[in-house]
Amino acid sequence: MSAPASSPSMTAPAAAPGALTTRTLTLLAVAALAAAWGWLPPFTVTLLNYIGLHALVALGLVMLTGVGGMTSFGQAAFVGLGAYATAWVCTAPAVAEALQGLPPALLPWLGLALGLVLTALVAGVLGAVTLRLGGHYLPLATIAWGLSLYFLFGNLGFLGGHTGLTGIRPLELFGLSLADPRHLGVLIWAVVLLALWALHNLLDSRTGRAIRALKSGRVMAESMGVDTGRLRAQVFLLAALLAAVSGWLYAHLQRFVNPTPFNINIGIEYLFMAVVGGSGHLWGAVLGATLIALLKEQLQDWLPRLLGTSGNFEIVVFGLLMMVVLQRHAEGLWPTLARWARRAGVRPAPARLPAAAPLPTRPLPPPGTVLVEARDVTKRFGGLVANSKVLLEVRAGEVHALIGPNGAGKSTFFNMISGVDDPTEGEVRLLGEPMTGQPSRAFARRGLARTFQHVRLLGQRSVLDNVALGAHLRGRRGWLASMLRLDRHEEAALLAEAMRQIERCGLAEHAHAPAGSLALGQQRIVEIARALAAQPALLLLDEPAAGLRHLEKQALARLLDQLRREGLGILIVEHDMEFVMNLADRITVLDFGTVIARGTPAEVQRDPRVLAAYLGDDGLGGAA
Ligand code: ADP
Ligand code: MG
Q1: Full-prediction pTM beyond 0.90?
Q2: What ligand has the least distance to the C-alpha of 406?
Q3: What was the pLDDT predicted at 623?
Q4: Domain 369-447+536-624 falls in which CATH fold?
Q5: Sequence ranges of the domains in the chain
Q6: Transmembrane residues, as ranges (predicted)?
Q7: With contact defined as beta carbons under 8 Å apart, do 212 and 457 qualify?
Q8: CA-based torsion, 130, 131, 133, 139: positive or negative
């Protein structure tokens, strides 16, 4: 399929021609700042420089915490790494001696390289150790490393101890000295704007879709083929590197460093900035950095007057203010600002994507091929046997139904054969390959796609975006390509494929609506569209018809029948017996985790054990 990307079905409803767009507004703001830069009073320039430096760190936190769902109080330590690395390179006599022949103007750039490498190493190790921690342990770990690095800076003799290092050379760029804060500020804000642009691009891409799923949809994302552990480590690294760049710029702005600005207090302040600004929004980082800087300015004036001392009371006031702000604006202030702008007629700029070429397809296994095979699969939860020696296979070109009363172990079995959970005993084979111990993304890679009994969508993202995540493994482009917008052809193809599946499932009119705004039954269909976007050979559907109206069920049955004729194998858990009996080629009946019957719908309906298990359940009687 090749649809021009600008066709109305592909892009979200956007600005009418001539209307003010967010992009225009951003460009105007940047132009205004650039034009005023030379005339701003030195005090304002300094303030803006600090806002830029803080915004860089907060941007990393927006990605890490707001988007990725990992809280860190320890970012200040990475700022310190960036600052100390360049400070050391620029001031250590040993370095000067070793690099005698080199022009001294190169030293800060070596310092940057060292800072980035060190940060990558430290973040790599810390990430490997701490990112596995769930719940409150991760934030606690970030406090621990924030404190350790801070004390390390203060206790290393060659870093000047608590006095720090002075006499750091100014930056030079193309032979121009950036000793004047006004000149360095241009570089600072260029870096901030570049980071904003690159991260905006990143979030609007295949990788970005996967990152957005880290916060609330890890199990789901893994089932779509995303390596969420690796992705978390990468986001963590990104945030750390942004902090290190901020530290590097800071060192050359201040021209001296000591441990104080890399204290855990400051780490908490960075988190304030991201959260108050709007931790899920990139521009929230700039807003948060601005607000906190202005506030701090005021507080440093007022608090000593009010309290008569110059203690560190800002942090207390910040904490209280943050609670007040989050009471009223749970997602920070940026969404409120964005809402005002929308009300004033500002619209997002229309997405421009090139024409989409079809995604590469892979041939389905020939009809009759055994796709998945469960051999004596047993699952125990403590003393409870949820699955007991279940034998089942699904072939290409058939609809196989798994039925049984509530609690029979159907969903548990789905998790066993899709890699979400491991069997206690027994073996699962996918297309002949033993899958023991493999993660669910490996199942996805081999052609399995599934839906979940309890819908797992990103409710705030559009239906289109959710479905496109299903096609994750059909794309290749990664971080750099996305940041630099080199992924547009592939992105257009992924979105076109998602749109095709949405249309096929009858949800075209909802494509741009937030997935969470749909009725629950429709959300289940979105999950089917997402699974189909993966172009699976085997489809697992856990109660897909629950919550659907009669006509919608008929449409679903037609769709599944068509997929079967195309050669997919489908395993379906469903309680609507009429639906199951009319659709399925074969049925396996589970009761208390054990298979009590298997066969064609006619055979199963006559089976006395099945009738006994369903006694009183009018579903089976209704269809018989
Ligand atoms: P079904 O999908 O057939 O309604 P499930 O597979 O969800 O049944 O559950 C089968 C049994 O396993 C139930 O008794 C349920 O309480 C139990 N169970 C499911 N998941 C877990 C779990 N993670 N921990 C403990 N018990 C579980
Ligand atoms: Mg279930």
Answers
A1: yes
A2: 1
A3: 41
A4: Rossmann fold (3.40.50)
A5: 40-263, 369-447+536-624, 459-535
A6: 20-40, 46-64, 76-96, 108-131, 143-164, 184-203, 233-251, 271-294, 306-326
A7: no
A8: positive
